[in-house]
Amino acid sequence: MSYVNLKVYSGDSLEELVEVLKIAIARRSLVIILGECRVDYEGRAASRLELGERVVIIKQDSALLVHRPHGYSPVNWQPSTAIIEVTFKPSVGLVLHAVRDRPREYLTVVFVRVGLVVIGELVDQGGFTMYLEERDMRDILAENPWIIEEDLRVLGVEKPIGEGYVDIYALDKSGRHVLVELKRITATREAALQLYRYVEVYRKEHGETPRGILIAPSFAPTALETLTRLGLEYRYVDLKRLWELFKKRESKRVSLQEFFTKK
């Protein structure tokens, strides 16, 4: 088993830390700095963050983040920074100057005091799986039906059919009704049979056969076999894509709540 190789610097002067940080950034090491700093940003907008105790992280891809003591989001950040310069200016402090090419942005962090610096290289090759709830998947797909199929028009969600509820009820571009069932994990044969039951109940109640689409991040071989045999369709869904859309939606919701709270 390999262990993370970390070097910790505490009690060094700002001037002594300049060379340490230059070498670490040139090697694309992970850098964590705890200290008192101010931050200036200039680019698509402009901002100034006055002196305060913060955590500054420079990741191994040169992304730079400034965190305050509270909250999970960075107050300033610079993704995939092209250049990070480190200098010491007497009567000013230790200066990190980060430049991003596209779009052109500048982030300057000035430390007047540093309590701790951690430097190391991390190895992370683990896979990442998002676990949205099915209702979140349903809402995101209902708001973005193009992910399922172009020109699909959503008529409703959680439509009662027989003794159950189909996740999404829609109309395709040819005017045919579509029943969409979702699974947030691997779809099984039972999921395919559940969709088939919805299709059959709808056919008996309305005198027409709707399209049935099962959506999941992955499918068991027996599920694919059953779907094909029963004339049903399936779509693979990218959970990462849904997660990004979910975050954007939640961010807009929080912004609106803050706006009305301020009003």
Written overview of the protein:
The chain has 263 residues and is of the alpha+beta class. The chain has two domains: 5-121, Protein Yojf, Chain: A; 134-242, Trna Endonuclease, Chain: A, domain 1. It contains five helices and 13 strands. The strands form two sheets. Strands 1, 2, 3, 4, 5, 6, 7 and 8 form an eight-stranded antiparallel sheet that branches. Strand 11, helix 3 (189-206) and strand 12 (211-216) form a beta-alpha-beta unit. The N and C termini lie far apart (56 Å). 26% of the residues are buried. Residues 258-263 have low confidence and may be disordered.
In short:
By secondary structure, the protein is an alpha+beta fold.
Output the keywords:
263 residues, alpha+beta, Protein Yojf, Chain: A, Trna Endonuclease, Chain: A, domain 1, 8-stranded antiparallel beta sheet, 5-stranded mixed beta sheet, 5 helices
* Proportion of residues in extended strands: 35-45%
Q: Tell me the overall shape.
A: elongated
Helix percent band: 25-40%
Number of separate structural domains: 2
Task: Give the topology.
Layout: E1 5-9, H1 14-26, E2 30-42, E3 46-58, E4 64-67, E5 76-78, E6 83-89, E7 93-100, E8 105-121, H2 134-143, E9 153-161, E10 164-171, E11 177-182, H3 189-206, E12 211-216, H4 221-229, E13 233-236, H5 239-262
Parallel strand pairs: 11-12, 12-13
Antiparallel strand pairs: 1-8, 2-3, 2-8, 3-4, 4-5, 6-7, 7-8, 9-10, 10-11
